Amino acid sequence: MPNDQSSERGNWGSKVAFIFAASGSAIGLGSIWRFPLFVGLNGGAAFVFTYLVAVFFIGFTVMLAELTIGRHTQKSPVPAFKQIKPGTPWVLVGYMGVICGVFILSYYSVIAGWAAGYFYKTITGAFPSQISWEDSASLFAQFAADPLQVLICLAAIIALTTYVISKGVKSGIERWSKILMPVLFVLIIILAARALTLPGAKNGLLFYLKPDFSDFSPTILFFAVGQAFFSLSLGMGTMMTYGSYIPKRENLVSSAAWVCFSTVLIAILAGIIIFPTLFDTLQLTPEQFKQEFEVDTGLMFQVFPIIISKMPGGHIFGILFFALLLIAALTSTISMLEVPTAYLVDERRWSRRKASLAIGIMSFVLGVPSALSAGGVSFLTQFNYMRKMDLLFGNILLAVGGLFICLFLAYAWKIRNALDEISLGCKTFRLRPVWVFNVRFLAPLAVILILIFIRVLTG
Ligand code: PFF
Question: What is the atom index within ligand 1 of the atom nearest the CA of 30?
Fold first, then answer.
């Protein structure tokens, strides 16, 4: 975030700077680890298409809503709600975002820690140049079940994130990510091209991209909407905070569209690497896969060593890929920690250092059971602790947050005011009637409906 150490609020230097920073928050493990995992768990292409529809109708809607509220108030979520509707319970939506930030950071950092561990492993040459599915899966299982390794990795990620936030050196990180994110993109394209040319790629592509609508179910809708919120960093006020730094002359509509587009693009490409590689290795048809294969939380970590082993110069590719994945994850953890830290700094007058340290320590403690739930401690593993945390905070509460943000904008602040704010930098908002309809009715209704299905899912 710009100029965060000065008392004056800074602004993004340009629209491009904002798009890079917001995409830095959005693009991360959500697109590269979580998206392929949910595609695998939810029957393939039907999920992919539902996700795209959810991003278009709900993700974009909430993204623009958050940016608009943020830019109008120039504040982080809790004070933003207070400013527009003082003395009302709407501020609770801001508090919910603060809580989500701490909890999501706790388990997200575990996965980011896995990426750090894999970065280290590729440097030290732990992956053989010819690696089978069984070997890769068992290497991952051993790693994730080793309490010492995963806890050290978790601590390292949280320490790094806390350091960046406490020093307010985010602008430096953002400058770097402007260079490094395009490199990640190029690397992903190269890996995707290799995956597509594997002999058994076709079945993977069929599973991934050819929808069979008999696969469609309320469960898919529930997870696809949750994934739209998670991957776009919506529902907890992150984008509100980012929006608060956008100058009035900038176009919020096209900014929101760019962030959605770049995030979806990376997610789709990640799937193009994972599924053709996986199907080539397993030699299964989509039907056999759905019936016989058990998709695991570590899917991405099981598949990447394989595709890397099939690249000429794979060792270097591996090091580069995991380094960039780590940076992509860090730009996301930083944005998560920013929301609770900004609350303590703005509202409770804590120093930035004390606030980030306190939240960092809390997230570490909360992250320990998640870190131990991938084989480290058997009852946590059986309980599927980390996946339950992700279900509650990453899927349900982000969607609930998004629901309230839409209701707040449409019925408390009023659409007219939001449109005035949007029009400052966007004279012709062609999708205006669609957005107004979505923010008033479609997005809230869709979220309410899928929340009703949770009872079906968990019952
Ligand atoms: N969007 C990030 C990702 O996909 O990796 C995760 C995330 C960041 C979620 C920030 C929520 C958030 F506020």
Answer: 4
